Amino acid sequence: MTTPDVDDGQAQLWRITIPVIASVSAVDALTDRLVETLCPTSWALHVTDSNSLSKAEQRRLREEIAGTNG
């Protein structure tokens, strides 16, 4: 993750990506929790299922997830 060396207190645009392997109901629950958590912050939520990703992108994200789960 790249972040500025100094926090000048100014709001700036960020993109946070969280790839997950989960059922539809688990993703719904997760997005509900994110909405509750982020409510006071200006934000937008985009949920994309694997069918809209290329096979290469699906493979890359699965490898990324596997790498974070020890």
Q: What's the topology here?
A:
Elements: H1 24-38, H2 55-68
Précis, in short:
It contains two helices and no strands.
* Nearest-integer average pLDDT: 90
Percent of residues in beta strands? under 5%
Give the N-to-C terminal Cα separation: 19 Å
Q: What summary fits the major beta sheet?
A: none
Radius of gyration: 15 Å
Shape estimate: globular
Helix percent band: 40-55%
| Structural class by secondary-structure content | mainly alpha
Low-confidence stretches: none
- Name the assembly state: single chain
Number of helices in the DSSP assignment? 2
Tally the beta strands. Answer: 0
Helices and strands, in order, run as HH
Give the key terms:
about 70 residues; mainly alpha; 2 helices; about 40% helix; about 0% strand; globular
